[in-house]
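Researcher: Structure prediction, please.
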Amino acid sequence: MNKIWMSVVIAALFEVGWVIGLKHASGVWEWAGTFIAIVVSFYLMIAASRTLPVGTVYAVFVGLGTAGTVIAEIVLFGAEIQLAKLVMIGTLLLGVIGLKLLSHGKTEEKGGA
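Model: Predicted structure follows.
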C-alpha cells in the first residue's frame, strides 16, 4: 500500500474517532479531541484526493469509516452484534477493496504525469 492510500486509511481511523466523539463526548477535552480528529481526518482525505480519484477516495474513506464505527461501537460500547449487520459491513468492505483495486492503474498514471 503506498503512502497516499495509507493516508486515506488513517483519515478513516480519525473519522471513526470523531464520529464516536460526536456521540459520546461530554467534557472539554473530549470535544477538543473530537475537533482535532475532524481536522486531521478531512485534511488527510483532501490531500489524498489531490492525487487519487476523488470519488474513489471518498468512497473508501466513508466505507472504512462506517465499518470502523460499527465495529468500534460493538467492541468499545457493547452495541448489539447482529449477523446481518456484519454481513453488510463485509459487503461494504469488499466494495471498498474493489474500488481501490480498480483505481490502482489510474494512480500510477497520475503520479507519473
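Model: The first helix runs from residue 3 to 24.
Researcher: Thanks, that helps.
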